[in-house]
């Protein structure tokens, strides 16, 4: 098979895959979720298997433990989170009025320094901005709540996903070996190297950075709740889940939490305590979590991840968001490989491409 036919074959396969995902997106969610969970838990099964347990027994123990943790989260954490989100939505008008009152005090201070017409324009602009912000935030949070409830009510997700996870986890090594046997022999080593790079990238992001986000979310949520901040559980989880973007998650959480603390507390002590939670979280992330769980480099730029999540969600819904990170990893590795091939070709060097053997000979002499 010529190179042109090979390219045509793989392009047709890619188009077929994308079309299949598009038309089957409504039923793919439990299978994609099960695959993601199996990939996340596979190292745990490998360690148990290395300790002498059979693959089936290791898979059973890991799956049961995961289900118990999930049930614990659904029973204890989700109702509390939903309750705080609802309370936050209901409290938004009061918070907006409080912010408006503080702004009016500030405007009263500078009233003598600004002429009346400009002051009125400034008040109207601030009022419109506050209303627009409140409306946007209410719609966003309300949509998340509705989507979360609908997501939790999908019986197929709750029933099928554990089954898919179990079988994929049990047969993971066999599946990898079978796929490896299907690879074209002439490009076998190249594909294996690229697949290893994709696996390292996904492991660094999903297993590493994902674990960091979950740990930070729990740390922020518990810390803010212990500090007495209202809606601390919600704000902490949001800050933790956004921590895959360096400094953005903690920055947003710090601003929102300290802002709420100003309106809730009358003294500086609790406010400083709220801020201290985020500074402690940053120290924990930078000195313990990231070095231990992620390492130096994960190979996925945060901007690329954000674009992938938004594009995947727009094209394929929630399934697209689940597939976004793996697809982004594959594209990233593919682009880096293509660039390395280009920079080692005559298209980069032109007719004056250096010959490695001549360079080696000249260096030895």
Number of strands: 0
Query: Which bin fits the share of residues in helices?
Result: over 70%
Helix/strand class:
mainly alpha
Rg is: 26 Å
Number of separate helices? 13
Q: Give the count of structural domains.
A: 2
Give helix and strand order, one letter per element, not per position: HHHHHHHHHHHHH
Strand proportion: under 5%
**Biggest sheet, open or closed, and with what strands and sense?**
none
Q: What is the average of the pLDDT values?
A: 79
Shape: globular
- Poorly predicted segments: 143-153, 357-365
Distance between the termini: 43 Å
How would you describe what is shown here?
The structure is a single chain. By secondary structure, the protein is an all-alpha fold. The protein has two domains: 21-172, no CATH class; 187-299. Helix content is 86%, strand content 0%. The chain is built from 13 helices and no strands. α7 packs antiparallel against α10 and α8 packs antiparallel against α9 (248-264). It is globular and about 80 Å long. 22% of the residues are buried.
